Every structure is written in structure tokens, then in C-alpha cells.
Amino acid sequence: MKAILTVHNIASDLVTTFWTPIFVGIFIAILTYALWPRNKAAFDEAAKMPLREE
User: Fold this and answer.
1) How far apart (Å, rounded) are the C-alpha atoms in residues 23 and 36?
2) Local structure of residue 10 (DSSP, 8 states)
3) CB contact at 8 A, 39 and 45
């Protein structure tokens, strides 16, 4: 049986082969930025902002 080439198949292949690795790379970059030791002080300060009385 021959596979039918449809727009859905083309879009699915494009997402699987092109966008998934890009989004995984973006996720890893964000995770690395958030867990980088140099950024700890800035994130700790931002976490305390709602508790401040001004």
C-alpha cells in the first residue's frame, strides 16, 4: 500500500525534524541560564520581592 502524501504528513515531518530539536535547545539554554551559579543572587533577590514592604 502506497502512503498518501498530505499536508498533515508534511507538517508533522517538518515539526518532528526541524522544530523539535530547536525547542529542545532553547529549553536547555533556559535551564542552564536559570541554574547557573552566577545568577543565584539575582534570582534570590527576585524571589524576595513579593515579601518586601515598601
Assistant:
1) 20
2) H
3) no
